[in-house]
Amino acid sequence: MNIVDRRPNPKGKSLSNRQRFLARARVEVKSAVQDALRKRKVADVAQGEKVAIPTRGITEPLFHHSRRTGRNDIVVPGNKEFVRGDEIPRPNGGEGRGGSEGSPDGGGDDAFEFTLSKEEFLDLFFEDLELPDLVKKSLKDTTAVDLQRAGYTVTGSPSNLSVPRTMRNSMARRIALRRPKLPEIEALREALEEARARGAVEKELAELVQALERSERRNKIIPYIDPIDVRYRRFDRVPKPNTEAVMFCLMDVSGSMTEAMKDLAKRFFMLLHVFLVRRYRHVDVVFIRHTSTAEEVDEETFFYSRETGGTVVSTALDKMLEIARSRYPTDRWNIYGAQASDGDNYGADSGRCVSLLGGEVLPLCQYFAYVEVGDGMGGGLSGLSRDSDLWRAYSEVAPAHAHFAMRRVGDPAQIFSVFHELFAKGGVRA
Amino acid sequence: MPDTRYLGPAGLEAEAPLFTESNWDFGSLRRVYEVIERIAIDELGLDFYPVQIEVITSEQMLDAYASVGLPLMYRHWSFGKRFAYHETLYRKGLQGLAYEIVINSNPVICYIMEENSMTMQTLVMAHAAVGHNHFFKNNYLFRQWTDADGILDYLSFARDYVTQCEEKYGLEAVERVLDAAHALKDQGVNRYAHRSRPNLAEERRRTEERRAYDEATYNDLWRTVPVADSDKEDSGEAEAQRVDVKHQLGLPEENLLYFIEKRAPRLHDWQRELIRIVRLVSQYFYPQKQLQLMNEGCATFVHYEIMNRLHARGLISEGSMLEFLHSHSSVVFQPGFDDPRFSGINPYALGFEMMSDIQRICTDPKPEDREWFPDIAGCGDPFGVLRHAWANYRDESFILQYLSPAMIRRFKLFHISDDASKPALKVEAIHDDWGYRRIRSALSRQYDLSRREPDIQVVDVDLTGDRCLVLAHYAHDGVLLEDKTCRAVLRYTSSLWGYTVKLLEIDATTDKVLKTYEAEIKE
Fold first, then answer.
1. Which domain holds residue A47?
2. Structural domain count of chain A
3. Predicted pLDDT at A42
4. Interface probe with A: pick from B37, B95, B133, B427, most Cβ of A within 10 Å
5. B58: closest chain A residue by CA
């Protein structure tokens, strides 16, 4: 007998089968993911998901006997009361008749349930979304460049000298021009000495001297390394895509924002965060909350502490500009902004908001989204029925800037669709 | 036999338990296996392949589930589906994993899970490494159909070949062929061994024999017999030609995949090879489908016997024995038909009980048993009888031969008939004198694969005309095919065949056509 320990074997033997299966059931899985999202809490956004998909696309049909035709004989255990000749009313469905065969005839709409990993889930969820203007930004910023090896060049700085390549050229040239090697000269010299010592005839000596001189002359004329041999390593400057992003979350926390509205805003910010994390190696998040003054806070405070006071939106934009300029230079950082508010603003401030946003904030940003949250009632008197101050103000800015989007959200179920709209590939911009 | 004979060279003469801790280690696995092997060979008279035990994790066990229990398999999405399915059940806690998987190869590969306790490992080794192993090596169906020496090599070839095809012709093209072939996999097996093809020498010998016979029986009178009219012969000739073509094509043919692989007009060579791979893998599993009851029964009976012998000798502790009995009794539990847990007859339960019953009949028969089983009742050699049964029967014949009235009473089996044309089910027989034989033969039919699976054959093909392939399903007792899956399978079939495929539902007794399906190829 032989005992083999297979436990250290590589895992995930059926991973490729799983990928094929997901690809096969793509349509079904995707719609199941969308369904699942609607019921989801924000905190679990980045978790795996159990999805149930209809078996349509993934059935494996086989020839079966139909249980509803002809005469079937069945032998089953556990008789308690029946005697020969008893009649039993036909049970409904497949129940009670060899249940393990399930329902060979009901294969249609049974749901097939399985668990997606977090990665698979997010892949599917963000599949048709993209970050606006990501590429443009990366190419535009020539300050962030990478050097990439690109062959050899005849000019360059000494530090880039490629010794092997230079020596190779030099050797080729020396061989081609038949530069005498040192041992050869040495040998000639020795032969001359020896000829002199034994007192050879004049003619032979003269020939040897001549040969030696010729060799030595060639040796001088043909240099060991010539400037034409020298090669330098060449580097191309390749614009480096920015892999760092900062996300500014701006939220109105004044008294008019209810908990429900804040929750909506939070959901939106979370989604944006998950999305950015998947696209960038490093994502910073800056939370700015404002009433009539703005301050940078940590996440906990941002979402959960209460404030009272008036509403001056421009203070938040000021704050954002200040932080961005001091800590996040645009040549290194992709800047994303998301603002959530109920739309209320101190009347005289809206004009200033517009000029700030259009003139300074938007040129800095990759993308700026404004989400106006309502209380979900949607009734006639609530904020959603007529345009709020801020909405009206921002509407002036929107047409001139493609990377500015504004949306309204009334209840949690809309969050995902709004998010989808905002980032859909080649999608609509408000 | 003296008890100390099996205790091995380790000097375990005293009745010291082989292990005391619940955790296993490689040393005790080896020690226990050696003792089990001795008991199996010396006392039970079993004969099995060498064993390779492989320790795996639960995740690897799920992997093995997904590839239908084989250690390697070509890649296909359906295995991913199976994996996802089992994984979900397992994570939910709805389904425990099997303690072992055993592969019918030479040497037999027996997977055991690292989570098992030492008692469970002992049980698993007795069950799989010895019980299943003996059955694999000795049962006539496995001997006839399963090439235990070659299966792993073939699977590794199959996997590489499929991968190469995927690289060469694209995932999608390969998937299309495999999907379609999978739909026909139950119809892709040979149910009877083919006649071995005569070689040339044999052919010549037969020709000469025939000529000799002709010469010996030559009678000049036959020359004078008038020949049939020529135009009358024409219609007959067309018919004869048709029959001849059918004969050349080997029709009727019940192995659909084989027929398609050899005769489909539009397949490329690599597609034929893919079909062949599916067909051979299906053929490998063909005996297992007919031997589930006996295979599990044999393994369960053997492990029960071995564990009891270990315990009787004090080689496993009381605690281990209790742990074993707990596990064993849940394995052989048979809920009644009206129990929510009921999902058909548990092959472990029926198999194990029948074999224990045979043991009882051999050693302690009742008058009833003497009447029913005169040849084995009281013969005193239960293992001889069982070894004979394990080697020479399959589920269907085993039940027909050995299901005793005592078993029918024990399981309270009853036979109901479900006639679709009648409003209610009818109880045909119960466990009484009148019913024993009827229940026995009805149960045996239930295990008859040729009745359980639809009888579908290629009956005709029009190779000169529209190349339509005609299949026939011979319906017994008026049981037709399930409509929806039938259409789906036919679509797959026609995608392989390349032309229209028809299926006729024919009543097996009257030859009347009950229903016709047709699947056209969509261009």
1. 23-56+110-120
2. 3
3. 47
4. B427
5. A7
